[in-house]
Amino acid sequence: DKKEIILKSGFPNLLDLGEIYSRLLDHRPIIQGEIRYFIKEFEEKRGLRELRVLENLKNTTLETKEHVLPKCEQAMHDNLDEAFKRLQAANKMIHRLQEREHEERKLQADKLMAREEKRVAHWEEFMKEQQNKRAEVDEEHRKATERLQEQYSEMEKELAKYVSF
Q: Which residues does UniProt call coiled coil (predicted)?
C-alpha cells in the first residue's frame, strides 16, 4: 500500500533508492577491490624485491665465508706473527737498554760515592788544618801576649825608677 502510494506519488521505488544510493554514494565495494589489487601488487613486487635482497645477502655471505674470511684469517695470522716477532725484538732491545741504564746508574752512584768520600776527606783535612792554624795563631797570640806583658813589666820597672825621683 505504501509502495503504491509512493509509486503513484511519483517517488521512485525503495529498492530503486537503495540501488541508486549504492551506485552513487556507497563506494566501499570499489574501494575494497582497489585496496585488494594494490595490496596484491605491493606484496608481489615487495616479495620479489625481498627475494632479490635475500639472494644478494646469501651470495655475499657465501662469498665472505668462502673467500674473504680465509684471506682475512691468513693475513691476520701472518701479520700477528710478524707483529709478535717485532714485539719480541723490541722487548729485547728495551731489556738491554734497561740493563745499560742500570749499569750507568750504578757507575754514577759509585762515582758520586767516591766524590762524597773525597769531599769528606778534604773536609776533614781542611778542619785539621784549621785546628793547626788556630793552634799556631793561639800560640803566637800567647807568645805575643807574654812579650807584651814582659815589655810592659819592663816599662813599669823603668817607670818605677823614674817615679822615685
A: 80-158
